[in-house]
Write a structure and sequence with these properties.
The protein is mainly beta. Helices cover 7% and strands 22% of the residues. It has a domain of 39 residues. It is elongated. The two termini are 26 Å apart.
Length: 360
């Protein structure tokens, strides 16, 4: 998160800036000389719809094959709301660098069966023109902010914290919601759901396939403490620019909940603490595999009653991780956990350059 300190001569100046949520990513602090007061303020992205700010020129239209968009509306540069159905191959939406698009919708089934691929894929299937800028590869660069729930509730999204359908914002091996864009910044994006469903965020930012030139370094917060099967499956797989991972507060795990979540995040140096004491099948499999610069991981599991815990729950969690790090460390809950991981370091993928020790 960026931190900003601003000096305001008057309260009026402060209020004018505070009401402009687009200026700052939280957290930010301000000092007002007139009142000799320091304020700590957080822009309310929760109450803002999903927004894309474009850094490149492009055009957009929507693929109508197997998809319908009657309930999806867009607002360009804060203008009127227009149905996505208005933008076709014959009449695409023209975008210039600096333009913004806000998104709202009223349907939770953003994942439909794609007969061509023989699998499920996201319902928001867009055709986006190349940015025409070599620095952006084939995908125009965008900054994401606002509340993703605006896609499933156009007016009351700031009060929606539970999913009712599986795979709401999930991707597949062939497509995913943000597949048409290179992501420059996603730190202002709000993913507020605490009531998760199976595969709800699976592959949401999966960059393992495609020629993306992403530069985002910070991921959105993930506040859920109760998980669902495969909810974060491959969510940030291949996000090579990511340096700051979100905290993962859940203490009760589910099958495949974090499978390959950060695999291939080669810029990630510090992993979030994994506080759960009991494992679930495949919960941490390959979670940090190929994170070549990872310097530490804290895993607080203490229940090793399943004799196959390493192969069934944590297979390859650190496979090829930390290969570029200096003396990487795996921190464990206690001496018994250190012994368990040491005995199974091959199954877990803990390289010989890793030290295994008790967390301080």
């Amino acid at each position: 998160m960026g931190k900003y300190i601003h000096l305001f001569e008057t309260n009026a100046e402060f209020k004018a800036m505070y009401n402009d949520d687009e200026k700052y990513i939280e957290p930010w602090a301000s000092y007002t000389r007139e009142a000799e007061r320091c304020d700590y303020n957080k822009p309310n992205f929760l109450a803002k719809p999903l927004k894309m700010e474009f850094l490149d020129d492009t055009t957009i239209y929507f693929n109508s094959t197997n998809y319908s968009y009657e309930d999806v509306k867009l607002s360009k540069n804060g203008g009127e709301w227009v149905s996505a159905t208005a933008y076709t191959e014959e009449s695409p939406l023209s975008i210039s660098a600096g333009d913004t698009l806000e998104w709202v919708g009223d349907y939770e089934g953003y994942f439909v069966y794609d007969s061509y691929w023989g699998e499920y894929s996201p319902r928001l299937n867009m055709n986006v023109a190349s940015a025409g800028d070599a620095s952006a590869s084939w995908a125009p660069r965008v900054k994401l902010s606002g509340n993703i729930m605006s896609l499933i509730n156009s007016t009351g999204f700031s009060e929606v914290f539970d999913f009712t359908q599986p795979r709401v914002f999930a991707g597949s091996s062939s497509s995913f919601i943000f597949e048409s864009f290179s992501l420059a910044d996603i730190s202002g994006l709000v993913l507020p759901a605490t009531g998760l469903t199976d595969y709800c965020y699976a592959s949401l930012f999966n960059r393992n396939n495609g020629s993306f030139i992403d530069t985002f370094t910070t991921a959105p917060e993930l506040p859920a403490t109760t998980l669902a099967q495969s909810c974060y499956f491959e969510m940030f797989n291949g996000c090579t620019s990511l340096t700051t991972a979100p905290a993962l507060p859940a203490t009760t795990l589910t099958e495949e909940c974090y499978y390959c979540m950060f695999a291939g995040c080669t810029s990630l140096t510090q992993a979030p603490v994994l506080p759960a004491t009991t494992l679930a099948n495949y919960c941490y499999e390959y979670m940090f595999s190929h994170c070549s610069n990872l310097a530490s991981l804290t895993v607080l599991v203490t229940d090793f009653t399943n004799e196959y815990w390493a192969s069934d729950c944590m297979s390859g969690v650190l496979s090829n991780a930390g290969t570029n790090a200096t003396e990487p460390v795996l921190y464990c809950a206690n001496a018994d956990a250190v012994a368990a991981f040491t005995a199974k370091r091959g199954d877990v993928g803990v390289g010989e350059n890793w030290t295994i020790q008790v967390a301080q």
